[in-house]
């Protein structure tokens, strides 16, 4: 599991309008884990299809935040807080949440906001602005200086907050999508009941979901009516329940107290998910032998599962067993050859193993991973190291500039972009990219200083 990154930005110049502020590492961060993401993709697919959306174009991402929330800010991403994921009790409940957010996309509730963001962006493509959404949804923007000029924080909230009419529309569509997908529509009522009564609280005491999704007694009554009207054709949920349990258990094992998570397991529970939890919690307590022993039990049950193999590779890698980690990553990548997170891990292991052959191979692997997912700061950091070892300092500086730009560190991005522009051949693609980053970074850094 890759976690605790600062959130990368997208629609970069949108910051100029919505007063984006940088976040500390303790604020909100993306959790990138190939197993959890593929499980969420499996759970989302039937409801996205029912909504008339392409599951291949919509990514379900987790934000490491203890508050309960879920939201959309564009047509390609649905964000779910870990706080909500850990409170939800069934696959049908998370599918209901996804269906509701998918309805906001399908019903065009964010189209005008996206048109605005794209229309004013002269440098779209440098990164992904999640910060605007996080500032509004968590209510915890960092107290540091804003990196760009913009309007008051109320504009941030308005970007995320849906009207009551939009919520009613999304509710009805979401219940229809779940029913069409064979998911029990009543599960979404169970989710809404988690927030019941919060409408009478002050804004500062309300959960993030209620701030962005107005919840009233009238809405709850209407939602119960939708659930009753669309219910009745529920399909076998055993497969969905398995993937939900696997994703939630892995998330809890990494985020919660490791001893507490192990104590929840019965001694007689030797199933793969229980053994996975033991492996992760022992690993977090630096007990590599017990962690790897538990992973052997997991892999005995599912020897060809690339995501379990990736977890084994992570444990080996972080236990500094680099050669064994290489073998595990290679097996994982063989089973999921287009997974950028696994590919990046393999490249990282090659760099850690060392040697000219491994380092040359790492560069090729990381270049391919970047082509699949260029928004991963850790991947970019490793790619810069690989370029440096290959004696390509210009490309190392360019990739480092991209990483700092994605992280909102525009002053550092400008320094490395200038270095890259000076080192790369004049007129080359890399040199032009460096100039673009330099121009944008200097512009945003200047606006940040003017604002202060």
UniProtKB/TrEMBL annotation:
Residues 35-225 form the Peptidase M48 domain. GO terms for cellular component: membrane. GO terms for biological process: proteolysis involved in protein catabolic process. CDD domains: M48C_Oma1-like. Its cofactor is Zn(2+). Pfam families: Peptidase_M48. InterPro entries: Mito/Outer_Membr_Metalloprot, Peptidase_M48, TPR-like_helical_dom_sf. GO terms for molecular function: metal ion binding; metalloendopeptidase activity. Gene3D superfamilies: Metalloproteases ('zincins'), catalytic domain, Tetratricopeptide repeat domain. It comes from the Bacteria. Residues 1-27 form the signal peptide. This is Peptidase M48. It comes from Falsihalocynthiibacter arcticus.
């Amino acid at each position: 599991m890759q976690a605790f990154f600062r959130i990368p930005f997208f629609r970069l110049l949108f910051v100029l309008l919505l007063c984006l502020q940088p976040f500390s590492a303790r604020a909100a961060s993306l959790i990138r884990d190939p197993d959890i993401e593929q499980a969420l993709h499996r759970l989302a697919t039937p409801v996205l299809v029912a909504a008339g959306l392409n599951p291949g174009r919509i990514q379900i991402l987790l934000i490491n935040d203890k508050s309960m929330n879920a939201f959309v800010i564009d047509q390609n991403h649905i964000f779910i807080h870990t706080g909500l994921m850990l409170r939800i009790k069934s696959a049908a409940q998370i599918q209901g949440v996804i269906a509701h957010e998918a309805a906001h996309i399908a019903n065009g509730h964010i189209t005008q906001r996206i048109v605005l963001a794209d229309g004013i962006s002269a440098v779209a493509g440098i990164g992904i602005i999640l910060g605007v959404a996080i500032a509004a949804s968590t209510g915890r923007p960092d107290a540091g200086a804003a990196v760009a000029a913009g309007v008051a924080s109320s504009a941030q909230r308005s970007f995320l907050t849906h009207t009551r009419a939009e919520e009613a529309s999304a509710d009805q569509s979401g219940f229809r999508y779940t029913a069409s997908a064979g998911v029990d529509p009543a599960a979404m009522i169970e989710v809404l009941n988690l927030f019941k009564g919060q409408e009478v609280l002050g804004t500062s005491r309300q959960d993030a979901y209620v701030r962005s999704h107005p919840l009233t007694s009238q809405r709850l009554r209407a939602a119960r009516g939708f659930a009753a009207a669309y219910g009745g054709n529920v399909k076998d949920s055993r497969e969905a329940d398995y993937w939900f349990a696997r994703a939630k258990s892995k998330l809890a094992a990494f985020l919660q107290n490791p001893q507490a998570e192990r104590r929840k397991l019965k001694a007689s529970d030797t199933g793969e998910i229980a053994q996975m939890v033991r492996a992760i919690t022992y690993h977090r307590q630096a007990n590599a032998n017990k962690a790897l022993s538990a992973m052997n039990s997991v892999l005995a049950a599912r020897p060809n599962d690339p995501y379990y193999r990736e977890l084994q590779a992570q444990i080996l890698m972080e236990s500094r067993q680099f050669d064994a980690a290489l073998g595990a990553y290679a097996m994982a990548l063989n089973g999921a050859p287009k997974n950028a997170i696994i590919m990046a891990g393999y490249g990282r292991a090659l760099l850690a193993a060392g040697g000219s052959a491994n380092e040359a191979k790492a560069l090729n692997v990381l270049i391919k991973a970047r082509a699949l997912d260029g928004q991963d700061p850790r991947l970019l950091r490793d790619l810069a190291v690989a370029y440096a070892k290959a004696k390509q300092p210009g490309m190392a500086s360019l990739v480092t500039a991209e990483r700092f730009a994605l992280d909102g560190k525009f002053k550092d991005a400008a320094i490395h972009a200038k270095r890259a522009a000076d080192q790369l051949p004049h007129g080359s693609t890399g040199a032009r990219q460096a100039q673009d980053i330099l121009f944008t970074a200097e512009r945003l850094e200047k606006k940040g200083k003017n604002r202060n």
